[in-house]
Specification:
- The protein is built from four helices and no strands.
- It is mostly helical.
- It has one domain.
- Helix 1 runs antiparallel to helix 2.
- It is elongated, with a radius of gyration of 17 Å.
């Protein structure tokens, strides 16, 4: 059963890390002020909040799988943050490199 929890956690982390770069709504509900695209700081804030939410899901899955929560030092959180950065690379590349290139070659 714990292998299923690991796959659920990894897939949800990959999806969550890429969500801020896909949509134009702030936290998926609010339009940015002025009707413009989301600013970079909004995407980073949204990404950081999703990192915390995935971490809370991980704590819940750990509690359910093992019956207890193990204490972690700061190194654990740095490694998970770096892993979340790596998971976010496809969405970041799409937003800031691929999408402008596609819009330049195929204008609407």
């Amino acid at each position: 059963m714990s292998a299923v929890f690991i796959w659920i956690l990894l897939i949800s982390a990959i999806v969550a890390a890429n969500l801020p770069w896909i949509g134009e709504r702030f936290f998926f509900f609010f339009k940015p002020p002025g009707g413009e695209d989301k600013r970079a700081w909004m995407r980073l804030l949204e990404w950081l909040v999703l990192y915390v939410l995935v971490g809370l899901v991980a704590v819940g899955l750990e509690q359910k799988a093992t019956g207890e929560r193990y204490a972690q030092d700061w190194e654990f959180y740095v490694v998970t943050l770096c892993l979340f950065v790596v998971f976010a690379i496809p969405g970041f590349v799409y937003r800031y490199q691929l999408r402008p290139l596609l819009q330049r070659h195929h204008p609407r």
